[in-house]
Design brief:
Blueprint lengths: L1 H21 L4 E9 L5 E9 L2 E12 L2 E9 L3 H4 L8 H6 L3 E6 L7 H12 L11 E5 L19 E8 L4 E5 L2 E6 L2 H15 L4
Parallel strand pairs: 5-6, 5-7, 7-9
Antiparallel strand pairs: 1-2, 2-3, 3-4, 8-9
């Protein structure tokens, strides 16, 4: 089972990378303007890639002294995740990290890794990543495959651990340098992951 999970994660990573590099080839089906609680406006392009609806956030970020346009795919608009409470300062904690581990229970369904992959694709060092923070995936316990094991105890010395959990509530909070991202279903765990990203991007 753990081997199967590893294979599924690899497939999902490849899919997200492919989607991130080719989203501009999707079929544009609409445009949304979202006004943040602070009064800033953000543009989302609604696209359809096969049977999947995606919302591409248009944001500018500086890289090597030059401002670049990033188009970041989300499954949910900000208004769809506003109901999830997030502790103040969590987004800044991610941005100030010198490294990040995104970890989850290997016994969860592969759906849980979607949120982890979305977070990594935005904050990580890949070409399409916005913040270029060294980011790695991990499990919370040992498995049959050769994969890093990280828990909240490893969140120290500027390294942040983001722990995705399936729990009884939807919330995001910090315990020291460990950020707990919770969902009461796999769908809401993805929404909580995107709620964290919207905080990092100062959309919410």
């Amino acid at each position: 089972m753990n081997i199967l999970i590893g294979v599924l994660i690899a497939i999902l990573i490849a899919f997200i990378i492919f989607a991130s590099l080719t989203y501009d080839r999707g079929v544009l089906t609409g445009r949304h303007i979202y006004e943040s609680p602070k009064g800033s406006e953000f543009t989302f392009l609604e696209t359809k890639a096969g049977d999947v609806d995606l919302y591409e956030l248009q944001v500018y970020a500086e890289r090597y002294g030059v401002e670049h346009l990033y188009q970041i795919p989300f499954r949910n608009l900000p208004r769809d995740v506003e109901f999830i409470p997030i502790q103040e300062g969590v987004g800044k904690k991610v941005l100030n990290a010198r490294g990040v581990y995104i970890t989850l229970d290997p016994n969860l369904k592969a759906d849980a890794s979607i949120g982890a992959i979305e977070i990594a694709s935005v904050i990580g060092t890949a070409d399409f990543g916005v913040f270029k923070i060294p980011t790695e995936g991990a499990f919370t316990e040992t498995t049959d495959i050769d994969y890093s094991v990280k828990t909240c105890e490893d969140a120290k010395d500027g390294v942040v651990v983001i722990n995705l959990r399936l729990e009884d509530e939807n919330s995001i909070y910090a315990e020291g340098d460990c950020i707990i991202v919770q969902g009461d279903s796999y769908v809401n765990l993805i929404k909580s992951s995107e709620r964290l990203l919207y905080s990092v991007l100062t959309v919410l």
